[in-house]
Design brief:
This protein has 331 residues and is mainly alpha-helical. It has 15 helices and five strands. Helix 2 packs across helix 5 and helix 12 runs antiparallel to helix 13.
């Protein structure tokens, strides 16, 4: 780390007026590593090595103007979702600001005025399971108990994220208070050996604290789920992962596949993305008249608007009932 800082200092003295983006990235990443979680840092490394360096690495920072950035963004949008491209630009903007603040480089305007395609912005809306499908899945999981089935039940009845469920141990369950203490998450992250565009990428499983402060929370357990958890606890140790029934962690990709298999076995042939379980949980509570603030707290969101904007999409039946109720006695 000391050698990197020394090299960056020399760059500032000798090349600050014509520094290339790859030189700024070399200095920015070690500085950023001290500020963020390992998973976030891995994402920054991936974006820099696989996206930004090939596109802008050999360009002088002062030359990366609106036209170049817009061309890059629109080219990326041909194969990537707007959310992904926005993530790339967010990292580029942080690097450019770093160049201006640390090396006094006169960077071009960061107001790039990207016109985002409205159709693509709504094309990735998260789906949900119907109430009937939820009942079908839960009935099968309760009748065919296994650690994977138990984890699937928890996903549907708590709205926990996949990484949080993979990190869940029996010691995290408070039977006296009937809550799950969500304190950790598991993820497989990229590990890049160097910052060259064609550098080798390996991966590793990392267990860390949840994504935000609000994500560390207590989630209530439904009585029937609590009873099942107690039965599993009789044959488990506190340090066992709920998902595996052992001290071995099961990563999100494996659990995702296990859950999909169980859903198909239940008789639900259309398997949605795993995040649809969380979406289904939130929407179900809202449709049962649970106030959004409470739902937001259970999900671990920092603001209730996130819950409303991302997860709450009333069913067609709910919308029909709203119209019928609103105009009852009027027409």
């Amino acid at each position: 780390m000391a050698s990197v800082i020394l090299r960056c200092t020399m760059m500032f003295r000798e090349f600050s007026k014509d520094m290339k983006l790859e030189e700024v990235i070399t200095c920015w990443l070690p500085d950023k590593k001290r500020q963020v979680k390992e998973s976030a840092f891995a994402a920054y490394c991936y974006t820099c090595s696989r996206v930004l360096l090939p596109a802008f690495g050999n360009l002088e920072v002062e030359s990366i103007d609106k036209r170049k950035v817009r061309e890059f963004a629109y080219e990326q949008l041909e194969t990537k979702l707007p959310k992904t491209v926005k993530g790339y630009l967010m990292v580029l903007k942080m690097i450019m600001k770093y160049a201006a603040e640390e090396y006094n480089i006169a960077i071009p305007s960061l107001d790039w005025n990207i016109v985002w395609p409205s159709d693509n912005l709504n094309s990735h809306k998260i789906e949900r399971y119907t109430t009937k499908q939820v009942k079908t899945i839960l009935e099968y999981a309760f009748k065919n108990p296994s650690n994977s089935a138990l984890a699937l039940i928890i996903a549907l009845t708590t709205g926990m994220r996949i990484g949080e469920i993979c990190a869940l141990k029996f010691s995290d369950i408070d039977f006296e208070e009937s809550v799950i203490h969500v304190t950790k998450t598991v993820a497989r992250i990229a590990h890049i050996t160097n910052m060259e565009a064609n550098s080798k990428i390996s991966t590793k499983i990392v267990e860390s604290t949840p994504k935000t402060k609000n994500s560390q929370r207590d989630v209530p357990i439904a009585p029937k789920v609590k009873k099942l958890l107690k039965a599993f606890m009789l044959i488990s140790r506190p340090d066992y992962y709920v998902n595996s029934g052992s001290t071995k962690v099961i990563e999100p990709r494996t659990f995702r596949n296990n859950a999909a298999k169980l859903i198909r076995l239940s008789g639900v042939d259309h398997v949605l993305r795993f995040h649809a379980l969380r979406h289904t949980f939130a929407t179900t509570l809202i449709e049962q008249k649970v106030d959004p603030k409470t739902v937001s707290s259970i999900l671990g969101h920092s603001d209730v608007s996130i819950t409303l904007d991302l997860y709450i999409h009333p069913s067609e039946e709910a919308k029909k009932n709203a119209i019928a109720k609103g105009f009852k006695g009027i027409i």
